[in-house]
Amino acid sequence: MGRWLRIPLLLGLLLAVVVAGLVDRSDGGVTSSFVRNAKKAIDMPIDSDVFRVPPGYNAPQQVHITQGNHDGSAMIVSWVTEAEPGSSKVLYGTDSNKLIFSAEGKHTRYEFYNYTSGYIHHCTIRKLKHDTKYYYAVGIGHTVRKFWFTTPPKVGPDVPYTFGLIGDLGQSYDSNSTLTHYEANPKGQAVLFVGDLSYADNYPNHDNVRWDTWGRFVERSTAYQPWIWTAGNHEIDFAPEIGETVPFKPFIHRYHVPYRSSGSTAPFWYSIKRASAYIIVLASYSAYGKYTPQYKWLEEELPKVNRSETPWLIVLMHSPWYNSYNYHYMEGESMRVMYEQWFVQNKVDVVFAGHVHAYERSHRVSNIAYNIVNGKCKPVRDESAPVYITIGDGGNLEGLASNMSEPQPSYSAFREASFGHAVFEIKNRTHAYYTWHRNQDGDAVAADSMWFYNRYWKSADEIPAV
């Protein structure tokens, strides 16, 4: 072959290689080109203003609320007193100057190694009116502190509602930036928290003082809007080397959830209805194999979801099933094998997870065709499957997960190693708008976004938001 004939052939082959590379990269989605200023993740000092104990004798602290029953007409109010138990009563009403109703709660405390907790109060306020602003007071008889919350609208298919999303928060300077950014976003009405709260277990002897500082740190949000809790691995607090053999002891004493109202037998898996959403919380660190309590509960729970009443089916868990970072890789695989087919059959809209300290959004994919015989081990696009979103980027002291697998897998639509929060804004039964906000941007700037088209009421495929 002549020299001049070989040149076009070589150019053609080179072009084919380049195009093939571009196609493979496109199939794998987008790896963000944003470069975050690298700095060491550091917890805020224990004497920081954000950890300050409120003034006054036996003043209530670490105030937080969460949904108190299945349909949102009840609220669990929790707080801690240090000097003595005091009252577990909550006064409340729709007029800030006339708190004419009251509810009586209970208090508990626990010991962990050489630490003894304060008096932890939990009080459930029931028979609340939907879509109503309530004022409430705690600390009756000592130092009274007042707060407020707004109940969700009555459950219905076209009720708009906006959830904030935070995971793996911790109490570092980056954590404070994440919470500040979320507070500045006016849309969020309740937080879906995907696990790993205080990171107290990173301290010697699982220093439970850091559970107290975390509770005071987040109070500026948790006292005013409900946070829906998911337990992560940093809530396990299993430390037999110091005599602590009861898993989740600090978490279950401090953070109550309405698990019994959905027929659950443990506070680590449960469901709630809120506006037009049906939210299922699963436990990555409790037994989930066949015939276990969690398995049996989920098997019975999914058919109960009435998509004509609550069209948006959202699942929260801690350990992600689809993850292209080289951290915690494949940790969620055994749970995926157990439950993914149910998610596809029941057309779950979106699954939010944490654990990996970065951000990632998948395409709608499933891997249910795989079995040990056929060898089909790669996820495929599946319009009946959920979108999987990892949002373990709250800002904790362990820092970012920045090492990604290459090339970017075909199931991964967008990924970025930055801290931030997200917002899931339900418009009606068919549409929801999702945005992810990195901490470095202005509050209104979305680093990633997409329109969701409801799986049950699906009329079109998703398209990325421009």
UniProtKB/TrEMBL annotation:
Residues 60-151 form the Purple acid phosphatase N-terminal domain. Belongs to the metallophosphoesterase superfamily. Purple acid phosphatase family. Residues 1-20 form the signal peptide. It comes from the Eukaryota. It comes from Musa acuminata subsp. malaccensis (Wild banana). Residues 162-359 form the Calcineurin-like phosphoesterase domain. It catalyses: a phosphate monoester + H2O = an alcohol + phosphate. This is Purple acid phosphatase. CDD domains: MPP_PAPs (cd00839). Its EC number is 3.1.3.2. GO terms for biological process: cellular response to phosphate starvation. Pfam families: Metallophos (PF00149), Metallophos_C (PF14008), Pur_ac_phosph_N (PF16656). Keywords: Glycoprotein, Hydrolase, Iron, Metal-binding, Signal, Zinc. PANTHER family: ACID PHOSPHATASE RELATED (PTHR22953), PURPLE ACID PHOSPHATASE 10 (PTHR22953:SF86).
